[in-house]
Task: structure prediction
Amino acid sequence: MEKVKVSLPDVEAVKDFTNIILDYKGDFDLRQGHYAVDGKSLNGVLSMDLSQPMDFVIHYDGDENEIIKAVEKYII
Result:
């Protein structure tokens, strides 16, 4: 499990982010405080407060650095 902070400031960023991680098999959560949503769920991510950073939690059997590199433009 790996965790990084990401910022998804608008709908276009959310669409791009979810499309990127849809290509990977694994579980990906986005968390803010006590709330967590499936990172692959466009509607779930859009329900979060996009004005605040989120924890991106990666549960992946492969190389987690590959996913981190794929979403690096959203990492803060």
Observations:
- The mean pLDDT is 96.
- Strands lie at 2-6, 27-32, 35-38, 54-59.
